[in-house]
Queue: 4 jobs
Job 1
Amino acid sequence: MKAFYYQNDELFCEGVPIIQIAEKVGTPCYVYSQNQLLANFQAWKEAFGNHPHLICYALKANSNPLIVKLFGEQGCGADVVSGGELWLAQKMGIPSNRIIYSGVGKTDQEIAQAIHAEILALNVESMEEISVVEEIASRFGKKVRISIRINPQLDPNTHPYIATGTRESKFGIPLQYVEKACRSVCTSSHLELVGLHCHIGSMILDKTPFQESAKILMHLSEKLYSQGIALDFLDMGGGLGVDYQSMIADPKALCPQEKTMFLTPQELMSSVLPIFSKFPGRILVEPGRSLTADAGVLVTRVLFSKWGADQNFVIVDAGMNDLIRPTLYDAFHQIVPARIRRGRFAPVHVVGPLCESGDFFAYDRPLPPLRRNDFLVIMGTGAYGFVLSSNYNGRPRPPEVFVHGNTFSILRERETWKEIWKI
């Protein structure tokens, strides 16, 4: 059963009515379900069966400390992309030997931080980065575990802003230079080649790009093995898409949408694990969205309804500073009332209060009758929601609320104006 569901026309998160949270905490606010987070991790864990593996949670999706700690307690590793994320992962109890550090533009300070932390592997993404890491490692007299991030030049069939394995992408070392990069690492006394990494994008709904990526990783690992180089792991990265059309139980009655085909972790791993059958080491994955997206919602309040010449608007108190995905990616999110008021559905533009025409959540979205101060719930915001929020227009970032069974607690309070400007 999904964590968000209707009971007597009222939306619940686990055992708590959303309205109860909104009235206590205020709006806008993010709400997360612990049970859904744990169920999502379990789905990934079961997808591997007995195959040696490590699931590294991509902190970029949602870096709330309690969520990071929760996954760490389940045996999850971490995929980090900054010194701040590395610090947080360690602070929340994730062992260094379960941390992968990615990122195309690491500073010298961040590289030194990763070296001293003695993490599982540093993903290098250019020939020059290999030289820089070697120089910093030699300065400290350390030997660094290195994974080469490959740019496989594959089209993952996703939004261009989140495609990271194409020929045009800034990420990874182009396929034709990977063997040269491996030789460079292997000839250094301060670097140790332990893995290959290939993250091709995000919101991928088709298994074919993953299979092609897996074949490239396997082919290169076999070639290296024939040269006497045995790797500890092959890292598939993340990128598994989620079904943003069906984030609540039985949504058809409220907002029927065309069904999107998407992969479950089980379906994905069943399609790629046979490709890795002869690899003796571990297979790593770096899920983010598929662990957290459907575990979170953004709750907002209706401020005004405005009937225009050509379209009708519902103006809410959340803005693109709270959730930028619709503006940035033209991303779809289900929007549902916290309490259903029966009546005729009508198409409306759901927009925020900011001084931007691009401040919107949905255009021409059929919704039931709404009144001032009604609560609307924007579904599927557990990933790339709060982490992409800002203080644009002088707006404090919203609080984050954690639900466990019949109770809820505030993980992060709403920002104050003093905290924004620190005057």
Job 2
Amino acid sequence: MAVDDARKQYLEKNSSRLFWIRALLNIKMLNIVLSLFYLSRGIALSEIFLLNLFWAAGSLVFEIPSSYLADRWGRKKTIMLGTSLMVLHWVVLFFAEGFAELSIAMIVYGVSFACFSGTDQALLYDTERELGREVTTLDALGKFHAAARMFKVVAPVLGVLIAKDLSPLQFRFLIGIDVVATLMAVWLSVRLTEPRHTMDVEKIESGIFFDAWRLLRNDALLFRTMLNKEVVFFSVFICWSFFQKFFFDRGISILVIGAGWAARHGVVFLYLWYISRFQKGKNLLVVLDRYNTWFLTAFFFFLIALFAYPQPILLFFLFLAFTICEGIRYPLFDEFFHKRFFSYNRATTVSLSNLLHNVLEFPLLIGASFIIVLDPRYTFLFSFAIGCIAVVFLSLKHLAEIRELKTI
């Protein structure tokens, strides 16, 4: 269907608006001192993992309803709801003083995340499709993921400079910056244009949810790839949850931690921005397996250094290396996923895949909360074992459909 000039002009702005929404929502000035913020509120290191479970609970409960809303009510309205809830999350966090208030903030954060889960990508993908630019999808997805890192190139450094004394006032100042940024994201979400969903009436009448579920149940390759993505994510996420405290206790200053983490985001941002140039014509599954191997190799050297030669700066460098390898994978996963989804149930299918994320999150984070009490180093070993699952048992490159999965 041809797109008239007026509508085309509005649709053209979706990509940039989504970019800035994602960038503003991911400033997260507090993140670089997040574990230290939690500790200042009387939270034990092991309880940090439990707080993340409240996030998972909020996301799990609202995951399917929010995606169903996105497919039937509209992507734009669901994104507006998500940005509004994110403002509420920061406000609750601003006043939080203990575990109960922090838990409420994390639940709201989880519900907000569920509103975006699959919805923003579905809006982007369908916008590109209506404009006749599906061929540039990987480039669009790469820039979309790069948006989450853009401000993080400077935010960690600014964050540690502002919160250099780790005082309550400094923590609240960081949160205040995110409140303002998120309000700007709300304004941008109102200005989005809803793209057309490519709908098959017969399939819609059979039910979006059940059609999406059938897709996941019958597509073994799709399920295996989703599991591969989540396993490596949790391997890094567990380490990320306490890395500031870990390196701070070993004599690395907050400023160095902030500068290193900013550099890490800078590398990931540049790679994602130009990912279509790096990966043009290459096989998606082969490239993903290669990234996973790089990740596990860097993690392995980190563990050797951790137990044999625990020099703090060397450890921090190797930590940044394996987190970079994990962070550059996501546009390729999204490119693969969206090529296998129908437009009318795209958000619902992505959300069903995120249920797998929630199912894995509970046992892995509970396990990490027990292990870290024994010794933080054992938590890294636990995370490495999780990462090994993706490389050893969930390899993608030898699958039968490998010849068909080229990037564009």
Job 3
Amino acid sequence: MPPADDSSTRDAQPAQSLVQRMLRETSRFAMLQVLSSLLAWVAHIALARLLDRRDFGVFAICGFYIGLGALLGNGGLAATLVRRRGEVSREEYQSALTAILVVTLVLAAALFFGAEWIGRRNQFSESEVLVVQAMAPLYFLGALRLVPYVRLERELRFSVIARIELVAALFRHGVALGLAFAFGSVWALVCSHLVGAVLQVVLAYAASPGWVGFGWSWRVFRPLFAYGSKVQLLTVLAYFKDNISRAVLGVAAGPTAVGVFDFALAYIQIPVVAVNSLARVQLPVYARFEATDPMLHATLRASMRTALLLGVPLLLMLALAGPDVIPMIYGEKWLPAVPVAWALLLNMICGLVDSPLFTFLQAQGRAGLALIAFGVWTGSTWVLALCVVFLAPERLPLLGGAYSAATLGVTIWLLRWVSRYLGRPATAGLEAPVLAGLGASIVVGLVRWTGAAWCTPLVASGILLVAYVACLYAIEGRVLFAEIRSIVTNARRAPAKPAVQGVEE
């Protein structure tokens, strides 16, 4: 038998090495991100006890302007450089960095000199106006990270990025807790974020050294911005949709109301954040199938169904247990957030399926439709929220209801469009977890209606979980257990070894 040609083997080895490196870096990045999230949660609990609701509200309002400026200043250039095929030239780095720094200079000056207007608009005290001005340098610090972060991402050194952010987070949380314990003011949050941002820049250049300098070429910059601006537009729309309270609630109700609403949003959205993190995995999977392939419908259905099966009971349990859990962990001053969390509940349940649906649109080459849908979602949320904010600013649950109403409308429209696109009902299999959640809520309501003293919020959340499982079994019977067995079997099955072309066994 003639010897096998090993040229294809040599070609396959770098590809396999690249895949292995990506898997290794991604797994390390994920583990470090989980650790960083746990640290942030612990620090948030401590800070929630040490600082006032107004402190969080003032910082959130200032953070809105910082975040918006960072998005506008970046212009999607970082995403463009990361996605660019081939090597990024020094001239491209220089043009991107120079453009971002010039824009951030203008934005920082506008924020610094417009601080009094922002303060008056959001009912700040004189000392709180200084907070706005003190946060202006964050524009520059974010821009200076552009080059080393792009280089690290292009080199697939995600674990290095995660370590940088973990170290910066440790210092940021340490400074915040120390200052909050000693002085107990919003300056604990401001100083800690400045320290963390400076440390991120220093560590980023230590990991990927080399200053590219300044330079400008319209010929080089124009194609970078043309692509990046389209990518960034969806991010800007999402930012406006998710930060309505920070943008306008302070004007009508003051920083304390912003702090309470943001706390409720962060508390109730925990399961949805976990679902959104799966978008990176779902995108390439959806992109592999044509619309006529039954596997595309099955894959999308499985993603949405799994999110609802797990997310619906978790969301209901969080809302039910709030009156016990929130004062126990965060302090009694945050109890006004409980009715707001309930009002946001429908918004979060819809969010469990919205993330897979928007990922589906992008993977199937419908990015334009996704942008239109997101624009309608953002616009309708703003219209309803503005009506609430200026007609009944003190009734924060109504603002949560505005979020839920807008999200429900967009979710129904997306499900109908996807059903037409696939030629099959996209809602197949989604009814059971929703009906089970509704049935379990009715059971808990009946138990609490009897006035049983033992049915505390924590006990009620436990009853809901048991009732949810019972209702789900009553609706689906053996179908659910068959799906669970299939998932367990596939998880235990050893992955097949990749075949190397040109090598005989």
Job 4
Amino acid sequence: MTDLNGARILIVEDELLIGMMLQSAFEENGADVLWTQTDRGAYEILDIGGSQIDLLITDINLREGTTGFDVARHARTRNDRIAVIYLSGEVASAATPFAVQDACFISKPVTQRKLIEAAVRLIGPPSTINSAPAEAN
């Protein structure tokens, strides 16, 4: 699979087995992963170190609290460059108006390969992860 060495990823997934699978898949590809099952946990992580996170992967329908859309909007207030992947078992087109700009929707169930490829496409190759944009001359 593709190398995500150095990428910092926050996963918000309330389903235990799915969360464990996602964490394992990204760690096996070199990413540093934080995983929480709740919106509250995500907000705490984002408030402390949101500027250091490259990618947010969030389930849209969290069991308790707010939605993945709310978590993504909060993430963008902490880091306007954070890439976002929404996961859902529901139809993504109906949810598009609630999404942050340039987010990616992936329907569950999803293969690890498809998710890793989407992550690399959104955050770029490892050499560009966590680097500030170059200034124009």
